[in-house]
Design goal:
With 179 residues, this protein is an alpha+beta fold. The chain folds into two domains: 78 residues, Outer Surface Protein A, domain 3; 82 residues, Ribosomal protein L6 (Outer Surface Protein A, domain 3, Alpha-Beta Complex), CATH 3.90.930.12. It has three helices and 13 strands, in the order H-E-E-E-E-E-E-H-E-E-E-E-E-E-H-E. Strands 11-12-7-13 form a four-stranded antiparallel β-sheet, with helices on one face. A hairpin with a 6-residue loop joins strand 9 and strand 10. The longest helix has 22 residues. It is elongated and about 70 Å long.
């Protein structure tokens, strides 16, 4: 039973949700998003709420219902409030800087790493050891943040690297000598 799929999505003031065939579009104060609805699920807008119904009552149908409901809820939240993900850079000489429409990272390698910023995503680097990724598309914000984190994953011995803000790194003990 999909408990999340059954919950209706409240549409806040200033947000408009419309469904044309298998395409759902959400327009709000921060922008607009569109998504194709997968077969086996129907989306209806009734009384200021979005209701996702499954057409098949089997395991896959329940999974599709929960997936589409979560995606539509993220779209509504994104165009209303937006999403942001903060990353912290720790390590001697590790830093980031903006260069036009790219973020340049100095992470202890012999070269700089440049990451282009996709459309509808905003990146703020202030101070050079904190990177804030903001946007209306939850999936795109999370993907860019994960790509940035994968450039230099945190080291469990010295805790150097890129971490999400609030992420806890389990530290390992180094070598010990027997005396």
């Amino acid at each position: 039973m999909s408990r999340i799929g059954k919950k209706p999505i409240d549409v806040p003031d200033g947000v408009k949700v419309s469904v044309q065939g298998s395409k759902i579009s959400v327009v709000g104060p921060k922008g607009s998003l569109e998504r194709q609805v997968i077969p086996g699920v129907s989306v209806d807008v009734e009384d200021g709420k979005v209701i996702v119904r499954r057409l098949e009552d089997d395991r896959r149908g329940r999974a599709k219902q929960g997936l589409i409901r979560a995606l539509v809820a993220n779209m509504v939240t994104g165009v209303n409030k937006g999403f942001e993900r903060a990353l912290l850079i720790s390590g001697v000489g590790y830093r980031a800087e903006m260069n036009g429409n790219k973020v340049v990272f100095h992470l202890g390698y012999s070269h700089k790493i440049e990451i282009p910023i996709p459309e509808k995503i905003e990146v703020i680097v202030n101070p050079p050891t904190r990177v804030l990724v903001k946007g209306i598309d939850c999936e795109a914000v999370g993907q860019l943040a994960a790509k940035i984190r994968s450039l230099r994953k945190p080291d469990p011995y010295k805790a150097k690297g890129i971490t999400y803000e609030g992420e806890r790194i389990l530290r390992k003990a180094g070598k010990k000598t027997i005396s």
